[in-house]
Amino acid sequence: YDNLKLDGQPGLYVDKNNTVYISDTGHHRVIKYFLNLNYGIVAAGENGQGSQLNQLNSPYEIYVDEIYEIGAIYICDHQNHRIQKWLNGAKEGITVAFNDEQLHSPIAILLQPIENQMIMFISSFSGNQVLKWIPFAQEAESIVVGISGHMGTEADRLFSPRGIKFDKYWNLFVADTGNNRIQKFLFNTSSCENSY
What Gene3D superfamilies does UniProt report for this protein, alphabetically (predicted)? Predict the structure, then answer.
């Protein structure tokens, strides 16, 4: 593959040093671009499509740890139904979330430092929910919003959620793509305060 050619709907993350990370979904890898260079390097998944620890299968959104494990990339390994963590310079990833009962086609991820550890918030596209997950746990700590496997138009239901984002007040915004809406959830409630 040519490092400059991307294929698919890439996830994008820019760190505080302006290093750009792009999930190259169609080529099953993550590319890292440094400021002022016109080429990238493969940061994760340089062994083609697959389910081995050194492979990815349609990676989507990514998040880079800039607090605890500087440069560690958390990847929504969409078709493998898992979250992979690739340490800076690693040749293979570490599975930090996998549960075929809960984690269906992860598509977006946020990490938040809570009580001296990184907590993952994962948008489960086919599971129609957003999950709160402690890395390496066997299952989600909680379902933040949605009901596993049950899509719907009600305020507490999602249909193929994608992007997720917290504001400074811990309100959660979810791109509820199947319902063509953006949902706003208060952090400690199970239904929407507002639908947009």
Answer: TolB, C-terminal domain (2.120.10.30)
How does pLDDT run across 109-164, given as a tens digit for each residue? Answer: 999 888 888 899 999 999 999 999 999 998 888 888 888 778 999 988 999 999 99
Cα dihedral angle (76, 81, 86, 92), rounded to 10 degrees? -140
CATH number of 12-195: 2.120.10.30
Chain centre to alpha carbon of residue 135: 13
Please report, for the chain, the start and end positions of each structural domain, with discontinuous segments joined by +. 12-195
